[in-house]
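Recall that a protein's primary structure is simply its ordered list of amino acids. Everything else, from secondary elements to tertiary packing, is in principle encoded there. The following example makes that idea concrete.
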Amino acid sequence: MASKLVAECLFCKIIRGEIPSVKLLETATTFAFLDIGPLSEGHALVVPKFHAEKMHQLPDEFLADAMPVAKKIAAALGADNYNILQNNGRLAHQEVPHVHFHVIPKPSTDKGLIIEWPAQKADVEHLKELARNMKL
């Protein structure tokens, strides 16, 4: 399982040690460190050691390790409430074009991740058609 890193990528540079970070955990396929722009104390990033911009481009063997690492970080933080967040693409609020997962403690209503959830009413027949068209 070889890592694939890119020269100009911010997270690839952090993984290679070219940019300093406060490392929490490193495995053969994952590098985790504290976020330098945290939403709350303990906000961490879990980054696969394979450069892919979006999750569907990441080989499964690199994806398989990310959630166990996030779980270890969440447990070590001891937070009763936390978010695991992963964004794909600029419109989805991805700032660094390298797959990564945020572990964000939610200690209060005004700290941590603050989001709106603009839920819409769904038509069940349309949902069924969508599921058929997805061909999983």
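Helices lie at 10-16, 60-77, 124-134. The chain has a mean pLDDT of 95.
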